[in-house]
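lol ok so funny story. i was supposed to be doing the assay writeup but got distracted and ended up predicting the structure for this chain instead. priorities right. anyway since i did it might as well share w the group, maybe its usefull for someone
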Amino acid sequence: MITKIRSFQDSWLVKGILILTALSFMSLFGISGYISRSGANRPIVRVDDVVVTQDEINYQLNEQVQSAKNMFGDAFELSEAMRVEMLQGIVHKNLVNAIMQKTAEDNSVTISDELVRKIIYSQPEFMDASGQFSLDKMRRMLSIGGWSEKKYIDTLKRDIAKQHLVASPVEGIVIPQIMNTYLEELDQQRKIFDFVVIDPTKIAIDRKISAEEIDQYYQDFAPQFEEPESRDVSFIELQIDKLAEKTAPTDEEIREYYDNNINDYVVPEKRRVLQMVFDDQSSADKAEAALNAGGDFFKVAQDIAKQDKETTDLGEVSKDMLIADMSDAVFELKKGEHTLPVKSDMGWHIMKVTSITPKKETSLNAAKNKIVEEIRKETAYEQANDAIAEIEDKLGAGASLNDIAQEYKSTVQKATGIKEDGTIKNVAEKYKKIVSSADFVETAFSYNQGEVSQVIETDNGFVLLQVDAINEAHLKDLSVVRPIIEKMWKENERSAIAQEIVNDVSHDLEDGDSFVDVARRFELKLQTTSPLKKGQEFAGLPAYQLLEAYQEKLGQPKIFANDNKIIIVATKKVVRNANKLSKEKVEALRAKAQSDLTEEMSKELIDAYGSNYKVRVKYKYLGLTD
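and the output, tada:
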């Protein structure tokens, strides 16, 4: 049940950060100003008609990254591994939310505004000194974070629905105290395992592949040996910067550009500001007296305003970032000084300046060269659009690629063996990026031999191409693919021999032969573990696989395939610790087991709900593996 404002849980980097925003509760409190975000891309998560788009996922990722930057500052660097982990968590969260939304709709689970209002009114964070709900305090709390009104209300409603559909049904599942003895026995139990590792790559093959087998592989795996269609093209590149060189802006144009983009050349003074906010003047006066007595700003904010450091530290701000009631007062302070209590619509403020970054201004003369470059670029793009229209008119009138190259003083380049996956057999190194781009490749495969394409825009200008030759898809000659076939055959042969060994070893163990005798018979190295408890690992087996082995009877073999190796495991001995656990420890075990069982049942219930719908998740659109 939601009785607290939710903490930010989207990323392990930023757990514990409160991320509610200063936007108001329009629908609940009649206050306008809600800002929504529109626009969508390809669907990433789809549960029947509920869709979460690529834009929404990326928006949530940006929120997490920004929260992490706010927390860690310049020390934060987003690695690829962190990005992937964040995206996976976001996708999973949205998938569960979509399943819950559909399940709530189908089961007529609705959450009224009245219930949401009651929950909000009950939040201690929103109450004033007298214990009454304070809209002003709520708005101040919201101003700390980053949630819109709609997002917060939707989250409340979704979590209440999830409580009804998931948490409530599993709350009644209880592990009775009578199970304490069993749980203690399991915790104290250790098992010793015998195991052998069979590595197919080290198995010797005592024969060579036959001609018949080579032919059979050549036929059976023909699609893998096909040389796909490729194209040979001629192309020219026309660069924007070459067009830009023709532009010479006047002094008036340079001055106008400078004035219109003054924020790029004048950075206003900024100050690092600490702030504490109070509902009443008496509290503000009390805090001001404590500061005058030498009190630390953060300590006073914590004791009297009940604010943590993140809430108190506003970071660097410019004058226009502060509300009018206090901007003048703050920017009249010297470093280290604080204001007297200042009244605003949000309460009583005391603000302190801890550092000052002076105004930085780049004069027109100093910025002139850069401005000329920018004007040239802008003008060049206009000229480029005119040039594109002109070139396409000439092509329509029958001009060749060579004609266009001569007129625009460009050189015709060649690229051969272009495939639809973007690989190229031969092209000058400086043009590899252009030729392998998706637009270039798609265009090369959209025209017939001898045809000249329309203009393709690039980062630096645009290109035109002509299809010189179409090399049809064909099966590679057997002499070319024979080494590949031989390698495939050897891998399959070794795997088959390894499987025969696994079958024979398992059969002999199940017939009651000792692991020692069986390992010797098949010339396998028998290894024995130390006493292990559940949750440990050995021989590359993760904890969940050891748990599977744990469930087998004494001497019963269990087979695992990991990293192209096969491991056969059998329990050799069960060891029990004679020490008795304290009552507190046993109760902790039962609580842990109860928590694990509840979590597992919740996951199973969500999976069951999801099985009622057509669920699709497109990880590849985010650059992840499906």
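Residues 448 and 467 are 7 Å apart (CA to CA). The two ends are 34 Å apart (CA to CA).
back to the writeup now i swear
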